[in-house]
Specification:
DNA polymerase, domain 1, single chain, mainly alpha, 5 helices, 66% helix
Length: 83
Amino acid sequence: MSNEAKIKAILYRSNYRGCKETDILLGRFANSEVKNFDDGELNLYEKFIAEDDAMIYDWILKKTPTPENYQNLVNNIRQFHDL
């Protein structure tokens, strides 16, 4: 899959997750930031958005500890939203 196709799929999956709160948190972040990601960041973000919505939401809002491999990404999402 080309990076352009991968980015389109990532943007779609970030904006249409089924949980409105997560749609907003991930969708706005992805729409602004994903196009600037390198291959490693794209791969990590793709893995991240494959996680369960409730887990992602809890990590972003600090309700549960964020796994170490996602810590920088979640911090970037928090910072993007001033959380």
